[in-house]
Amino acid sequence: MTQVVVGENEAIESALRRFKRQVAKEGIYADMKRQRHFETPLEKRKRKEIARRRKRRYSR
């Protein structure tokens, strides 16, 4: 669960930016998008293979 504690003199905009940064870092949006629709096993394998390729390409 992502939480942001707003300081006494902190603007709401800066707290909202911190919240959005934390949500993006934890991958909540990506997980939400992925679970929005049913994914067949074939689609899941393809997505994971593409992620492996992308990870391998940038790790060299």
Automatic annotation (TrEMBL):
For this chain, the family text in UniProt reads: Belongs to the bacterial ribosomal protein bS21 family.
Q: Does the keyword Ribonucleoprotein apply?
A: yes
Spell out the PROSITE patterns in the cross-references.
RIBOSOMAL_S21
Please state the gene responsible for encoding this protein.
rpsU
Q: Where is the composition biased (Basic residues)?
A: 44-60
Q: Where does this protein come from, organism-wise? A: Oscillatoria acuminata PCC 6304
Q: PANTHER family annotated for this entry?
A: MITOCHONDRIAL 28S RIBOSOMAL PROTEIN S21 (PTHR21109), SMALL RIBOSOMAL SUBUNIT PROTEIN BS21M (PTHR21109:SF0)
User: Which segments carry the region annotation Disordered?
Assistant: 39-60
The record's Gene Ontology biological-process terms are: translation
Query: Which HAMAP family would you find in this protein's record?
Result: Ribosomal_bS21
Q: Which InterPro entries match?
A: Ribosomal_bS21, Ribosomal_bS21_CS, Ribosomal_bS21_sf
Name of this chain's protein: Small ribosomal subunit protein bS21
The molecular function terms of the Gene Ontology recorded here are: structural constituent of ribosome
Q: Which keywords are on file for this protein?
A: Ribonucleoprotein, Ribosomal protein
